[in-house]
From TrEMBL:
PROSITE patterns: NA_SOLUT_SYMP_1, NA_SOLUT_SYMP_3
The organism's place on the tree of life at top rank: Eukaryota
Gene name tied to this protein: LOC114802909
Topology term for the membrane: Multi-pass membrane protein
Protein's recorded name: Sodium-dependent multivitamin transporter
Catalytic activity of the protein: (R)-lipoate(out) + 2 Na(+)(out) = (R)-lipoate(in) + 2 Na(+)(in); biotin(out) + 2 Na(+)(out) = biotin(in) + 2 Na(+)(in); iodide(out) + 2 Na(+)(out) = iodide(in) + 2 Na(+)(in); (R)-pantothenate(out) + 2 Na(+)(out) = (R)-pantothenate(in) + 2 Na(+)(in)
InterPro entries recorded: Na/Glc_symporter_sf, Na/solute_symporter, Na/solute_symporter_CS, Sodium:Solute_Symporter_SSF
Pfam families with a match to the protein in the record: SSF (PF00474)
Organism: Denticeps clupeoides
């Protein structure tokens, strides 16, 4: 009888929530799609009309600081993050906010290390760097790894929010997936990177508006922000500084503030989607400034996610919609809360849905464009160096279209995955660390050679999958519930979070390795690549400075060991400054 009553209650709640989704909400959602398509069409038929690969893939290197910075932010802020961060705060408290401490170094290092190297080499694909520094084999290995990472991820990032939306509001599942996928493919294929960046700007504004609407209305209904804070404090949701150094603890200051730096570097330092935006800037200074400008924006995004989680707690307390059976997963809980708070205000639920899918659009459009770029520049052009510019541009557009269709196919595959969906999501986070390690090996260690680079990358990927899959299988076999999609880190690194839950018993041996906090994944895997790469390089014959392509090594050791005599620094192969090398190159 109780089960029957509970299921009836669920059906009744579902009916109530679905009734709140009005025609006005659908109109606002449609306007988002129309506006995004319009921006794509505008850049398809204006300016140079996307007739060259330079314009289609790099926006003619003509972008200013503001749109690039907002685009960097939008790529970072996925729909998974919009749904995940508030439910993380609601469930575990504000400890997650300390992730913001990692943003400082996580953006400062790319601005002053990675951007100067990539920009001065005048690259189109980040993986061109790997050929200049090592050889073609390393470049292809990096490219294939990146393509695997993005193809697996982009279907999931489109399907997961649509599934949550469908479960809570009755919004048509495949209607939403197809509408988003096709619109995104349209404006990415027609408008190139310039359209992707300007739609990101528009979608970022929509994201901010949607989250602010929920927070303002929700806090007002609970008696103001002071009352929300009081309830959260009384419910032990306001966390202090946790300085526990245990790497197995899911969230502490060290896992978030230090481990988070490596997650940020994997995204903002070497991920093609972000590197492409730096390279589209008019000058190196504008690229660096866009990186700086992301910092306050990210802090705002993180704060909005935390505030929404606290307002949720003020509304429901310990009796969450998940516990009451109104929703099935944590990521649905945020949508249930939005419909509960905004349901009586026509248009506002639609604004949040537009906000949610803006996150998805910005992520997958970046994926399409970056995938088309690396496929063209790293896999096709090297074999056809005499290819005409018009033909190369046409193939680039066809690649963007092709990856758009692959995304829809991956969304369908994601729908068949069931519980494996979580594992597919975590693959994205697993691959980011080894790629970061590969670039760091080349950029900071002049004696690393190509054999060391390939061996290190393989070792890093094996370590990543061993720890990631071991953790996932261990927790599933223990029947532990999976945590929420609690991410505000780069799409790019975000989803390793989905494999890690709270640790109850102190594990030992291999189990301790499997219980490593997901925030240390990137650091652990990138360090594996660097250490294995250096050892193999030293065993197989290290490179010397004369063999290096000028401008491919950042003089990190030379700067750190400034106190050593010049002859010792010369032996360490790190004395020539970056500026001199680049001048020689150009």
């Amino acid at each position: 009888v109780l089960v029957g009553l509970k299921s009836q209650l669920k059906r009744n709640m579902g009916d109530v929530v679905q009734m709140h989704f009005s025609t006005v909400d659908y109109v606002i959602f449609a306007l988002l799609l129309v506006a995004s398509s319009g921006i794509g069409l505008f850049y398809a038929f204006s300016g140079g009309r996307q007739r060259t690969t330079q314009e289609f893939l790099l926006a003619d290197r003509s972008m200013s600081c503001l749109p690039v910075s907002l685009s960097l932010l939008a790529t970072f802020q996925s729909a998974v993050a919009i749904l995940g961060a508030p439910s993380e705060i609601y469930t575990h408290g504000t400890q997650y906010w300390f992730l913001g401490c990692s943003y400082f170094l996580g953006l400062l290092i790319p601005a002053h290390v990675f951007i100067p190297v990539f920009y001065r080499l005048r690259l189109t694909s980040a993986y061109q760097y790997l050929e200049l520094r090592f050889n073609k084999t390393v470049r292809i290995c990096g490219t294939v790894t990146f393509i695997f990472q993005m193809v697996i991820y982009m279907g999931v990032v489109l399907y997961a929010p649509a599934l949550a939306l469908n479960a809570v509001t009755g919004f048509d599942l495949w209607g939403a997936v197809l509408a988003m996928g096709l619109v995104c493919t349209l404006y990415t294929t027609l408008g190139g990177l310039k359209a992707v960046i300007w739609t990101d700007v528009f979608q970022t504004i929509v994201m901010f508006a949607g989250q602010l609407a929920v927070i303002v209305v929700g806090a007002h209904q609970e008696g103001g922000i002071a009352e929300v804070w009081r309830k959260a404090r009384n419910g032990s949701r306001i966390a202090g500084l946790d300085l526990n150094p245990d790497p197995l603890e899911r969230h502490t200051f060290w896992t978030l503030g230090v481990g988070g730096v490596f997650l940020m570097l994997a995204l903002y330092g070497v991920n093609q989607a972000q590197v492409q935006r730096y390279l589209s800037s008019r000058t190196e200074k504008e690229a660096v400034m866009s990186c700086y400008a992301v910092f306050p924006c990210q802090q705002i995004v993180l704060t909005l996610g935390c505030l929404m989680g606290l307002v949720m707690y003020a509304r429901y307390g310990e009796e969450s919609p998940l516990d009451k059976g109104y929703v099935k997963t944590n990521d649905q809980m945020v949508l249930y809360f939005v419909m509960d708070v905004l349901g009586q205000l026509p248009g506002l639920p639609g604004l949040f849905v537009a906000c949610l899918f803006s996150g998805a659009l910005s992520t997958i459009s970046s994926a399409f464009n970056s995938l088309a770029t690396v496929t063209m520049e790293d896999l096709i052009k090297p074999h056809f160096p005499q290819m005409k510019e018009s033909r190369a541009t046409l193939i680039s557009k066809a690649l963007a279209l092709g990856y758009g269709l692959v995304c829809l196919a991956m969304a369908y595959i994601a729908s068949l995955m069931g519980s494996v969906l979580q594992a597919a999501l975590s693959i994205f986070g697993m691959v980011g660390g080894p790629l970061l390690g590969l670039f760091c090996l080349g950029m900071f260690f002049p004696w690393a050679n190509s054999i060391g680079a390939v061996t290190g990358l393989v070792a890093g990927l094996l370590m990543a999958f061993w720890v990631g899959i071991g953790s996932f299988v261990g927790r599933v076999s223990a029947s532990a519930p999976l945590p929420p999609l609690n991410v505000t880190v780069p799409n790019v690194t975000a989803v390793a979070m989905t494999t890690m839950g709270p640790v109850t018993l102190k594990p030992s041996g291999l189990q301790a390795l499997y219980s490593l906090s997901y925030m240390w994944y990137s650091a652990h895997n990138s360090t594996t690549v660097v250490l294995v790469g250096l050892v193999v390089s030293l065993l197989t014959g290290p490179m010397n400075e004369k063999e290096l392509t000028p401008g491919t090594v950042y003089p990190l050791l030379g700067n750190l060991l400034f106190f050593l005599p010049e002859r010792f620094r010369e032996k360490l192969c790190c004395i020539m400054p970056l500026e001199d090398k680049v001048t020689n190159l150009q």
